[in-house]
Task: inverse folding
């Protein structure tokens, strides 16, 4: 190589190093700043800057994306995750996180596509299965949702929640497999037991029915009882598809539409609940269809009563509930609905009679004695002659359940039988020290007896356990 050419090359190398070395050093400086910064936004910026200056560290774009994710800067996170993707530097968890930021930024379709693409990568994250199951469930594609959740459960056999969610989805397509998943869920987490038992009963009843439409109605009712209203709606729609003349399916569909729409509305404007209700998704038309098909169905009349009650039309609600109670005169639930509606109308005498009728129809069911006792206490009606005996019956039936003891103590307090009330409330707290209501009522008792220090202590306990009433009393009497 001629000496002149060599000299040129050396000059170029020197110039290049003069340019590159500061850039590289600043890249490492940015990397150190990212490790020591205390805010996610700063961490994200430093990682991004480091990635731009250290081209062999494209993985830093993903780290930047994670930091933007935690900072809830989802658009910025999307941008740097794309950079990582372009450099083939996304890890399995990075793919999951990229979909997450798109989903959280209100673009579930793009998130779904990212997660689907991620499955084609080598060693994809198992988290993708639960993500895809959720988005397909939200879109009403329950079979695909179950398909992906089955893949997740196969890898996480000890995840009770996943077994339960899979069981819910399978109630619509494979009841036998649904029961297996639900039982597994309750064995892993006993707290799921009551919901699982409810669904198990519904599925067993459905299996004994020869009508496909009725099987779907029974399944939907079970899902409704565990507050899975979107899945219940699908079941009721399936029932109608099997039999357009099934009045109860139409009535339940109306209720499911209302409940699902109300749940979405409570979740916020972005959920679409308000839009659904504004388009007539409150279920009124379905309830009217049900009434036209079979006005002699107690279920149809009762669900219409619920609709009128929610709209504040208590007169019409009362007519519907009374009709349901005549059509199904052995069912105490209709009497409770009648009593509640009379109470809304201000007729406490007839309301009390209805609650009492419910207890005569189901004398061994503690729920109806509980409702009667609470009605008397809340309205200060016949506390001594009806309310306290009802609470005593409740305690007997529930074998000294803490909430039952609390109700009895509260009613004794209202009747100014302070020593007896204190005994029951202390007993309730011995059974359950975390019972906020019992702490509240014991505080009220001590306040009545002007034992302010003791009252204050009980109100503090009740407030700390979540009682808003206790907090209001503290602000009023202990400012």
Result:
């Amino acid at each position: 190589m001629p000496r002149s050419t060599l000299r040129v090359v050396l000059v170029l190398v020197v110039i290049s190093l003069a340019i590159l070395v500061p850039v590289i050093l600043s890249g490492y400086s940015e990397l150190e700043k990212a490790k020591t910064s205390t805010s996610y936004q700063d961490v994200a910026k430093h990682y991004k800057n480091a990635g731009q200056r250290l081209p062999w560290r494209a993985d830093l774009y993903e780290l930047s994306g994670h930091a933007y994710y935690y900072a809830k800067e989802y658009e910025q996170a999307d941008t740097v995750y794309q950079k990582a993707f372009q450099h083939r530097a996304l890890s399995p968890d990075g793919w999951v996180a990229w979909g997450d930021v798109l989903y959280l930024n209100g673009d579930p379709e793009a998130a779904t596509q990212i997660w689907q693409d991620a499955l084609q990568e080598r060693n994809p994250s198992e988290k993708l299965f639960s993500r895809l199951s959720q988005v397909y469930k939200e879109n009403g594609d329950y079979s695909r949702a179950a398909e992906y959740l089955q893949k997740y459960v196969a890898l996480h056999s000890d995840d009770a929640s996943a077994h339960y969610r899979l069981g819910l989805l399978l109630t619509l397509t494979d009841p036998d497999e649904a029961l297996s998943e639900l039982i597994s869920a309750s064995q892993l987490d006993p707290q799921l037991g009551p919901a699982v038992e409810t669904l198990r009963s519904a599925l067993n009843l459905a299996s004994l029915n020869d009508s496909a439409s009725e099987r779907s109605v029974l399944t939907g009712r079970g899902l409704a009882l565990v507050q899975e209203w979107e899945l219940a709606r699908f079941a009721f729609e399936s029932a109608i598809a099997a039999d357009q003349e099934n009045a109860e399916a139409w009535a339940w569909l109306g209720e499911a539409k209302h409940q699902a729409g109300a749940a979405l509305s409570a979740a916020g404007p972005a959920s679409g609940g308000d839009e659904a209700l504004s388009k007539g998704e409150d279920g009124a038309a379905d309830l009217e269809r049900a009434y036209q098909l079979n006005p002699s169905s107690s279920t149809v009349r009762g669900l219409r009563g619920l609709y009128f009650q929610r709209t504040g039309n208590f007169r019409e609600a009362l007519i519907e509930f009374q009709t349901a109670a005549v059509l199904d005169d052995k069912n105490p639930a209709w009497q409770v609905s009648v009593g509640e509606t009379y109470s809304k109308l201000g007729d406490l005498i007839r309301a009390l009679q209805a609650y009492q009728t419910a207890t005569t129809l189901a004398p061994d069911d503690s729920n109806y004695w509980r409702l009667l006792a609470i009605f008397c206490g809340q309205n200060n009606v016949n506390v001594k002659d009806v309310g306290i005996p009802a609470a005593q019956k409740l305690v007997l039936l529930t074998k000294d359940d803490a909430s039952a003891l609390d109700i009895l103590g509260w009613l004794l307090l209202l009747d100014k039988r302070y020593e007896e009330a204190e005994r029951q409330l202390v007993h309730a707290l011995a059974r359950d020290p975390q019972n906020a209501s019992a702490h509240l009522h014991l505080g009220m008792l001590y306040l009545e007896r002007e034992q302010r220090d003791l009252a204050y202590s009980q109100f503090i306990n009740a407030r700390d356990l979540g009682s808003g009433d206790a907090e209001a009393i503290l602000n009023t009497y202990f400012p």
Q: What stands out?
A: Residues 13-21, 268-280 have pLDDT under 50 and may be disordered.
